[in-house]
Amino acid sequence: MPSFNNLNTPLNVIFMGTPEIASESLRNILNLFKTNILDLKCIYTKPPVWDSKKGEIIKSSVNVIADEAGIKVRTPKTLKSNPDEIEFLKSLDLDLIVVVAFGLILSNDILAIPKYGVLNLHPSLLPDLRGPSPIHYAILKRVKYSGVSIMVLDNGIDTGPVIAQNKVPIGKDEYYETLYKNLSKAGGVLLAEVIKTVFRVKLNVFKYAYPQSLIKISNMTESKLIGSSAQNVDFFRDEPLEIYSKIRAFRELGGAFFMFKNKSVKLIEAKLLINKEEFEDKQFERTAGHYDYNDYMENGSEEVFKSIKYFSEFLPTLSPGMIILANKSGLVIQTAKKGVYLSLFRLKPEGKRLMEYIDFINGYRIKSGDVLK
Q: Taking the CA of residue 230 as centre, how many other CA atoms within 13 Å lie in the half-sphere pointing to its CB?
């Protein structure tokens, strides 16, 4: 049984992380450092990289915060077959290693070093959305809730037993950037609570974790790395909900895109409009906990739909990708479903600056009846 004095001894901890989601967790950990819940021995992050556009070396978000806090930073290029780093870690008499989006794989030798284990923050409700792109996929799946999981790191990919989870709501029109920030904040808070629990009880984190196999989930998805083909939009073949999800999920990657006059045009901001009086797909499949067409029935104003109807009457036929409205009132595209439209707000044509829709209309002489391939 641990002694009372041992229970009040700060945890010897190192933190490993790189991007903004990790820096949000680091801020919470620094607060625990200030209150003597832990002794932050050092911070690991990915090495600085050269930014050719800025002409300077850029440190990771975590590195910047560590420098400001005066915490020692280590930036190895790999931890695989790295005996020097393993010996260094062993010399710290570690109680806990905390990992958030570090970017390097930890070997079994490293996982075995801390007395109480290795904690990891994953921005999804595991076991759903394991893999490298859980936030993008949460939007692509159109789920109404995602969340954060604190798990014990093992030698699998996001397979370790889970200690704690918190749900985070996703708005039907929410973009990646907002969801990323919300998950980062929720994850940092939950991670701090778990660390405080370890501080109080001083026991291996495996004792609090439960296997992911025991977590019931109706439709588990493995997230994948996002390639350019996944970002392509086909107005003729793609479901409108799928297109809208791509626009919101991929903006931080540069944007979902379509081809126009043999050039790519990135979709930076848009809105899905459904005229319930025209919408004919009455038998669309509804899935509990997911956004569907019914959730977007009130997205457009009566004035917008009146304008769409007015200009539609001058077009001989309507086809997916056809521009219905192209004036100061908006840039509205017909989708593959009757009564479902995309209103485009901001676009970035290949080789051009980011544009408001009216500049795109004027610059490319867009008019009703034109078709976006």
A: 16
